[in-house]
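Feature request, filed as a ticket because there's no other form

It would be nice if the structure record came with a short human-readable summary line next to the tokens. Right now we just get the raw output. Example of a typical job, pasted below so the devs can see what we mean:
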Amino acid sequence: MTSVFHPRECKVTRKKQKSYGFSLRIEKDTVGHLIRNVEKNSPAEKAGLKDGDRVLRVNGLFVDKEEHTQVVEIVKNSGKSVVLLVLDEASYKKAEKEGVNLEDLGQKVSKGQQQKKQQQATPPMANGAITPAPQPRLCYLVKEEKGYGFSLKTIQGKKGLFLVDLSSQGAAAKAGVQNNDRLIEINGKNVENDKHEEVVEKVKNSGNCVMFLLSNEETDHYYTSQKMTLNKERANLELLPLKPRLIELQKGENGYGFYLRMEQNTGDHVIKDVDSKSAAAKAGLKDNDILVAVNGERVDALDHESVVGKIKQSETKPTLLVVDKETDAMYKLAQISPYSYYNRGKDPAPAKTEEKVELHSEQKVNHKPRICKMVKGPSGFGFSLNMAKNKPGLFINEVQSHGPADTAGVENNDFLVEVNGVNVMNESYDKVVARIQSSGDKLTVLVCSKDAYKYFQDQNIPITASMADPIHDTSEPAAYAETVPAESERTSPEPRERASSSSSSHSVASAGTDSSDDTKF
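Raw output as currently delivered:
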């Protein structure tokens, strides 16, 4: 007699800067991705997750047989809400024993629950409280070696094209795309009435990155019932990987310590010549940042004198909303202003802090490892690799200021955990050096601070890339086009040893620009 199984679909929605309230892990001699440590009164508990549940699907994507790190990454990239299809522990073990196809089982349940949701004309209730109205989502996809990792298809009787067959390790899944999402816009342009071949051509012509505005079945139904139009002005921006930064300045004895320049060809108000010891530098302002707003007021349409006036009116404590050039380009691709993040009541990323999207607050923020991507510069990767005599682990030192490693986020005394995705914590010094030398012009490392290393060792917690925040890839700076082989250098019998030379410091001068307005602060 065949058993009947009842997976549960749980939509977990967290508050700003809070965790979902559960751990996702794999355990020795135990099959499946397990839900553990469900916190009392947390979003996870309220959504119905229970200790021992096995995750079958994440946002409609079947993940039971996927690598655990990939499943964690998909959850982390889901933003404020994640939809998990789970099966209780006893049922999961029974299904495994009976050889049940969990992918088919999950698909049937997921479709059935979606049909149930179609009957709802208002936002769903959760524990007596109305959950936020569903929103379309902006997703920024960066092409990988195997493409974007999705297929497009039409569904009879439904408007538009749908994204299906998502690769769990592909660019689309990492960007927050969900299976069966409907495509509304490509790079800010509506494509709902475009033909299949026209949409395919637009994606191809977008190059190595593309911005999608997407809607799922629940969002479509809600907007139709409310007679509302789906567009980017109503979109959830939380999945976008790059955020504007809010800079709170405090005037020093010599002013703020930067110049503001209006570029004539773009009209952008650009931060220039930030004094490294100034109040601006301490607050996190950087050369070539683009000014979006002053004290909550958008300034991109103002002339230079008006913007200067607004900063001066602030007396000693102006608040600036800024973006770097990469973030600016991403928002321009979507054809929206970075000010939208500020204007919609979101929290722009504070200067010098990273976006926190955690499954569970098992480790403090400063205990997170970091993924750092870099391109070899004129003097190698710009760091030394060291080891302490009779002590485990390799650590990084002599990080070259403004070099590839420094730009990628590597810091002095960081412990090296992985090289190009391979854990090297138990490898010999020579073997790790060889790995770095054989990586060519590009290198990806997983590192953590000395305190974090000690914390994880004390707690007996394996350090993995899944613990790190989403990566900000800095591996394509034009400044490091020249390649020089890294050389293994051992200078003395002391515990300190080098993997590559970083004896000389290199600075890169920015190209001059034609501008008529340049004001010092």
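Something like this underneath would help us a lot:
The longest strand covers residues 81-87.
DSSP finds 14 helices and 28 strands in the chain.
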